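Hey, I was hoping to borrow your eyes for a little while. No rush at all, and the record is pasted right below:
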Amino acid sequence: MKRLSLYLFLILFTLQTPSQAEDIRDFQIEGMSVGDSLLDYFEEEEIKKAQKINTDYSNKFIAFWAPIKLKNKDEYDRVSVVNKKYDSQYTVYGITASKNLTNNFETCLQLKKEVVDELSSMFVNAKKKNKGKVKHPADKTGKSFAYSTIFYIENAYVEIACYDFYDNNPNKWFDEFRVDIVTKEFGDFIKEYYK
């Protein structure tokens, strides 16, 4: 009987297909994901101090550099997070990891391809949209471009992008590789904000 149980276990174990990540919370940056409370990672005073250097979106959302020591310094230079203003739980509505790749745009495009391939195997049921080369909505001159691929998962999305900003732009934006995890609520808000 033990031998039969062992055979059944081996057959069932080997026939299982690996589970695919279909929950946006399975995708994390520095251990954080959307829906998390920043209080699980930082003291409230650290959060408030970091929020003072921010991008204030119409008094509704606030984006700021996360007060963390990066574990994956080779992959990106900085991480920013978004939460609603006046949210006492500091719920995460967006996370962005980016790497400055000024004067190295071909490397950015190659890195984007590698990450998109990896996410395609991770989120097999996600709707994937390759946006190609589009004008960056925040640059009203029309001289800056974004090359992005978006994976839509439940009520959120992951965007992998390379940003090619024109030299000497007044905002001092630089070419960069970015990975964004964004809730649908914040994503919809940003679409309207930049119209």
Notes: Strands lie at 54-57, 61-65, 78-84, 94-100, 127-135, 145-153, 156-164, 176-183. The first helix runs from residue 2 to 15. Helices lie at 2-15, 44-51, 105-122, 184-193. The chain has four helices and eight strands.
